[in-house]
Amino acid sequence: MLDTMATLKDAHLQFIDHLKGKSRASATILAYGKDIEQLVNYLNSLGRNDSSEVIMDDLKTFMDKLFKESYTAKSISRKTNSTKTFFKFLKSSGYISDDPASGLEHPKFENKPPRILSKIEYRALRDAARNDIRIYAVIELLLQTGIRIGELSKLKVEDIDLTGLTLHVPKEEGTVERTIPLNAPAAEAVSKYLEVRAKSQIHTLFVTKTGRPLLIRNIRTAIDRYFKMAGIKEAKVNDLRHTWVAYHLQAGTSLVVVSKLAGHKRLSTTEKYLQFIQGQVNGSSKVKLDEL
């Protein structure tokens, strides 16, 4: 039983320890931690320092504040879930007798269809980045293999086999280990990048000019810049993955093959793309991947 007079900040730390004790994924713990830290800071600004002082109106005004600050409905929904989980923990641990978050509702939002780039668009993106050897290689790998940006940032030099033309995606939290065929455009782009890659003692494939790992946020920023240079609107890095999945399904590649190479844990995740593409793909058995 926890001290019922513990501060919200103390309760926040106890909550993180609780999640670690339940062996939750580190990414999940980090997300919950940041969400609740933001909430606690807001509640403290209202003069709420103890968990027993918090009422539902405080939580509603916090969510309204996020909406006014242009957070997406999806982000607010995630923070709502974090808040509900936090206060359930507070109640079960003896911090509070009543749960002020029990009646908190998730915002309503529509699931937008995936943004699938046209040939003109992804070729324009290539052209825009062509003189940036490192980011050009990043774009080619994302576009030609469909891997996630998080997976790409963790690739090691040894994960690339330019002789056997394969890319090994190691198992990480929330991802599936797999080997993906490496086509000519991707292999050529990576080969040229390796020729100019900064000397480094680390094995991370993509590094900065000083030999440090290239961070996800820096990759996003660079590709966003080239999207703008290419005149491609409302596009994000993850759309390269969407494009890879949709393109190969439409080209007739087996649904099972695409799902496996994409690292989808459920076939239903891959099937959702079928409604956004044209062409007869159901029942197709093509295995060989085309070049984008």
UniProtKB/TrEMBL annotation:
Record keywords: DNA integration, DNA recombination, DNA-binding
Core-binding (CB) domain ranges (all copies): 6-91
PROSITE patterns recorded: CB, TYR_RECOMBINASE
Keyword set includes DNA-binding: yes
Domain Tyr recombinase: 112-292
The UniProt record lists the keyword Transmembrane helix: no
GO BP field: DNA integration; DNA recombination
Transmembrane segments annotated in the record for this chain: none
Entry GO MF terms: DNA binding
InterPro entries: CB, DNA_brk_join_enz, Integrase-like_cat_sf, Integrase_catalytic, Integrase_recombinase_N, Integrase_SAM-like_N, Tyrosine_recombinase_XerCD
SUPFAM superfamilies (alphabetical): DNA breaking-rejoining enzymes
PANTHER family (alphabetical): INTEGRASE_RECOMBINASE PROTEIN MJ0367-RELATED (PTHR30349:SF41), PHAGE INTEGRASE-RELATED (PTHR30349)
Family from the record: Belongs to the 'phage' integrase family.
Record's protein name: Tyrosine recombinase XerC
Organism listed in the record: Candidatus Daviesbacteria bacterium RIFCSPHIGHO2_12_FULL_37_11
